[in-house]
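Researcher: If only I could read backbone structure tokens as easily as an amino acid sequence. Walk me, if you will, through where the backbone shape changes along the chain. I have put the entry right below:
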Amino acid sequence: MNHPDPIENLLLAQKLTTPPRRLDRRVIDTLRAYSWRMPWRLNMLFGALGTAAAASIAFAVILNTPAQAPAAAPFQIDQQYSSMTPEPVVYSDQAPPTMNVRLHHVRHTQWVDPVNNIRIEVIIPQQRVLTIALPVD
């Protein structure tokens, strides 16, 4: 087989040999040295207790692992800014006094997609001038 990883290719190219009989004998002797100290029923009991403890620890870890948060959906952010700037009063002989007021309004909208790391922004400025007739006393 040809793997993309060069280390895998190197390991696959090595000849496989059977382990020596001495290794098998040493493993068997090691296991036998611990088994003669206790009766086989105690070995079985400790083996079962060890298995139960390992299973309960694994189960506790699984229960305490927080669930993965679902992928965040794209969302929209709307912001609006407004300001008002009054201008000086205009006096005239033919008409009542008037005052102009400039209204500035900016609408800022963002669409954010956190999964794909995309942000789209639109800024819409608006300006209006209102003419207000002032009452005469």
Residues 56 and 64 are 12 Å apart (CA to CA). The first strand starts at residue 75 and ends at 90.
